[in-house]
Amino acid sequence: MDLTRQDVIKILAVTEHARLSGVDLSELDLQGLNFSGADLTNTNMTGANLTNAYLRGARLENADMEGAILAKANLKEANLKGANLKNADLRGAILKDVILFEANMQGAKLDRESTTY
Question: What is the pTM of this model?
Answer without folding.
Answer: 0.92
